[in-house]
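anyone seen this seq b4? input:
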Amino acid sequence: MAVITVFREPGAMGKEVAARIAGRLGFSLVDRAKLVQLSGEVDLDEARLLHVEEAISKGGGKIDPETEGYARLFQDLIAQLAEEQDLVVLERGAQGLFRDRPGTLHVRFVAPRKFRVAQVKNREGLSERNALRLVRTLEAERTRYLRALYHLSAADPTLYDLTLRMDRVSVEQALNIIVTAVEEMGIRQAPREKIVENTLKPHLPEKGGNGRYVNDAESEFARFLEFYHIPFEYEPRTFQLETDAEGKTMEAFTPDFYLPEQDLYIELTTLKQSLVTRKNRKVRKLRRLYPEINIRLFYQRDFYSLMAKFGLLGEPVANER
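predicted toks r here
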């Protein structure tokens, strides 16, 4: 598996090259359209995505907890996609998300501002003055996005493996340089788990575990409950959903957690659409058969929002030194 991240100065033709890299190598391109599609898989609409991105890139102060929670979720969507596909990720702070990871190549596209303003002017049909204004605005927004999420400077040369000056090379030449780098660095041979390992695990106080939880999400949620002294039981009850003619159980459902003080069952979901759909179906069936049971399907975005509200998100583990 491999991930190529693309950071571009406005007007430096990075988007064009990114699309062609994806096509040449057979990678999936993660751009705005792809992120909208991924967000839809966890019941988030394009308006919410746009609101979050604007709050991060245009805001001048601290990000509010809800926005930060959603922002981490969007990054997690990309990280989980990298477990399944080779990616070319355009912007989205990806050089911070996948910083120093095996199996990654980080590319930056630059050019003198005069060159870039001319590109934007021709592409958008703007006056030179308006093109310059747009370039400056986009420069600030892209820089702010990376700083807000990862406390990194987009100008830091150590974030990139390649920096291409697009007034000096053509799109085709840039494409060939990147493809050669992919081959020479052997990034496609990296184990996929090494690419996304610990990219977005929220910071939680360390607690000794007993190894009984099925996955990291359950373990993290349990440690969160323990830290705030919220009583809970893990998988305390299995509900029968369907039986055959002889009364044998054909389908059952065991929610992940039970909070006795709230009389609430919680089932955690993943971001994989097939699993989300199946769990939604089981929860609906349980509610129909056991109307007295209070259960909530807890999406990963809910977990991030909760973590952000308690100030436990912190910086991603990938950035620790």
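Confidence is low (pLDDT under 50) at residues 200-211, 315-321. DSSP finds twelve helices and eleven strands in the chain. kinda curious what u guys think
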